[in-house]
Every structure is written in structure tokens, then in C-alpha cells.
Design brief:
Order of helices and strands: HEEEEEEHHEEEHEEEEE
Distance between the termini: 34 Å
CATH superfamily: paralog of FGE (formylglycine-generating enzyme)
CATH topology: paralog of FGE (formylglycine-generating enzyme)
Radius of gyration: 18 Å
Strand order of the largest sheet: 2-12-11-10-13
Helix content: 10-25%
Largest sheet: 5 strands, mixed
Number of helices: 4
CATH class: Alpha Beta
């Protein structure tokens, strides 16, 4: 415990000094982990039960990473996290109005992390793409993106705080309860009712795998023809329009590449798992997890492994990091 506190303190100090590192510039370990933090996120097997249906505060990257895997699954004090999961649930057919085309129902199921731990999640709606700039601007009235010439590209240069602010605003637009409170301090999350939020790490990895047991949702190899990936500055030098590349088996686009994606969990090392059904992560921390990898990961394909996890301070903003959202359904 003392060691974790010291590590968190060091991470915060580094963040305040502005010690960020650019994505894809660091060596990647043999297990798909980065040897130091990169500025886009990522996050390996899953049993798919059913088929898919239809403001910012200052900060910088903490330099945290871990052996590739998803949710830490630790006890959380977040409100109402269900302790049992229903797999193969039918689409509850929520009325999403004008936003229905942005979402797909992901049925619940179980996946196995790279540390051989099985994790189970309930079904949820997930945005089929990373949130595009035009939708972000429609909801919040601004576009903070560095690569802003294409409004169908994912919004980036957004902090965790920006992302959850968007979630609350979209919940308002849909007539749902807002799930985040105390956003500028610790962004407490409700899980006991229907609303828009960031995916938990477990939800993100389950959705990214879409039944795959390999490094990527489609197999073990990767190229710039498969994802938005910077292998040659003359080919890919910025983010791509969302949905440009083929989706995974769940119908989700850009779960590898384009931009890294904030998830809801506070960062903590794996191995302290107490909740393996609908885990929501630690109840507090210094930095938030982000998964996936950005277009500028160069040839460090391991940084796009579905197991890769990294973290940054909640106020950190990078031009290769954005987010997608889920709509949790009260069970």
C-alpha cells in the first residue's frame, strides 16, 4: 500500500511538471506493454454470448502502464455497480431518437484477460465509432481537436473531464439521468440507472475483442490497410474519418488505431482483483486509464494490442486521444 501511494504521488508530480510523452515513441515490451507511458491509449480472449444489434482542467500523462490486459476489476465505491451479469440479453430497444444510428447493442458475456482471469459484463449500448468532431460540437458547442479539418474525424485533444462532461450533456439530450457528479474533483459515476458514460475497462476490452483470442480483434497481424496507423507520413499523417476501416465482429469501428480512448476506470496495476463480474475499477486514484492506440503509433504494432493499458491525469489532452461512449441499461 505504501508503495502504491508513493507511485501515485510520483505520477502526480510528473504530471504537474508537464512530463508528457508522445505516442508510439517508446519501446514496447514482449507482452504488449509499453516500457513507459505513451500519449494514446490501448488496451487479449472473449466468449461472445449473442450477436450485436442494432471545461477541461490542466494535467499531463502520468507515465503509468501495465502488463497488457483490461480492467483491474478492483472493488469500487461507484454507485450501484451490479454484482451479477446477465449474458445473451436481448436488445432492450431503448428509444435513442436522433442518436440511434450512433449506437449498437453489445450483448453481455465473458472474456479471459491475458492474466487468465475471466471477467463477465452485462450488455450495453456502445457508440459504433469514436465520438466524431461534428457530434461533439453539436452537443458541447466547441471543437478542441488539433486535426480539425475533417469534422467526421474523431474528436481529440479532449481530457477525461471533457469526455465525461460530454456524457452528461448527451444524457440530458436523450432524457436520461446524468451519471457523473463532482466532475472536476473525482467524477463519481452512477451505475444504477440508464445513462451515458465512458465504458469501463472490462466493457471496452470485451467489446474490442468481439470474441477474439488474439492480439487484435481480427487476428494476429496488422497493417495500415487494417487500421488508421502512421506507417508512412505520406499515407497517414492525421486522424481518419470514423468508420473508414472495417468493423470488428460486434460492428464497432476503430477499436484499434485512429485515436486512443479514455475509459472510466481509475488506474491501478492488475492483480488486485476482487470483482470479476461487472468490475468498475478502483474507487479512487491519481490517473485514469485509456485504451487502444492512436494513428501515430509508428510501427509499434504491439502498442495496439487489445491487452494494452495506459493512463494519464484526468486533465491531460493529446491530439491522438479521444473517446467513445456507452449507454448503460438498468438491470
Amino acid at each position: 500500500m505504501t508503495l502504491l501511494i508513493k507511485i501515485s504521488s510520483i505520477c502526480v508530480c510528473l504530471g504537474l511538471l508537464g512530463c508528457t510523452q508522445s505516442a508510439g515513441k517508446n519501446p514496447i515490451g514482449v507482452d504488449g506493454q509499453s516500457s513507459s507511458s505513451q500519449s494514446s491509449g490501448i488496451g487479449h480472449s472473449s466468449s461472445v454470448n449473442g450477436s450485436s444489434g442494432q471545461s477541461s482542467q490542466g494535467g499531463s500523462s502520468t507515465g503509468s502502464s501495465s502488463t497488457g490486459s483490461s480492467s483491474s476489476g478492483m472493488n469500487s465505491s461507484s454507485s450501484g455497480a451490479p454484482s451479477s451479469a446477465s449474458v445473451n440479453e436481448p436488445d432492450p430497444l431503448l428509444d435513442l431518437g436522433a442518436f440511434a444510428s450512433y449506437f449498437k447493442w453489445i450483448p453481455g458475456g465473458t472474456f479471459t484477460r491475458s492474466d487468465a482471469v475471466k471477467v463477465t459484463v452485462n450488455g450495453f449500448y456502445m457508440s459504433t465509432t469514436e465520438i466524431p468532431q461534428n457530434l461533439y460540437e453539436q452537443i458541447l458547442g466547441n471543437n478542441p481537436s488539433f486535426y480539425s479539418s475533417l469534422d467526421s474525424a474523431p474528436v481529440e485533444r479532449v481530457s477525461f473531464v471533457d469526455a465525461v462532461t460530454f456524457c452528461n450533456a448527451l444524457s440530458d439530450s436523450l432524457g436520461f439521468a446524468t451519471l457523473y457528479s463532482n466532475i472536476l474533483v473525482d467524477a463519481q459515476t452512477r451505475f444504477d440507472t440508464t445513462g451515458v458514460r465512458l465504458p469501463t475497462e472490462a466493457e471496452w476490452e470485451y467489446a474490442a475483442r468481439a470474441g477474439s483470442t488474439q492480439a487484435y480483434s481480427w487476428g494476429s497481424s496488422i497493417s495500415s490497410d487494417t487500421v488508421s496507423l502512421y506507417t508512412n507520413p505520406l499515407v497517414v499523417s492525421s486522424t481518419a474519418a470514423v468508420g473508414k476501416y472495417s468493423p470488428n465482429a460486434f460492428g464497432l469501428y476503430d477499436m484499434h488505431g485512429n485515436v486512443g480512448e479514455w475509459v472510466n476506470d481509475w488506474y491501478a496495476p492488475l492483480g488486485l482483483d476482487f470483482v470479476l463480474v461487472n468490475p468498475t475499477g478502483p474507487s479512487s486514484g491519481a490517473s485514469r486509464v485509456y485504451r487502444d492506440g492512436g494513428f501515430d503509433e509508428l510501427l509499434s504494432y504491439r502498442s495496439l494490442f487489445v491487452t494494452q493499458r495506459r493512463s494519464a491525469l484526468p486533465g491531460d489532452m493529446q491530439p491522438n486521444r479521444g473517446f467513445r461512449v456507452v449507454i448503460s441499461v438498468k438491470h
